[in-house]
Amino acid sequence: MSKSTSGVSGKTLIVPALAIEQTPGRRLFSFAVDGKQLPSFAAVSRVKRDALHELAGYQRGESLSHIKTIQKYLESADAILPNALVVAFDSRVRFESDAGADEADGAALSGRLIIPVDDRQEEHEKPGWIVDGQQRCAAIRDADVVQFPVYVTAFITHSVA
Question: What pTM value is reported for the model?
Answer without folding.
Answer: 0.82
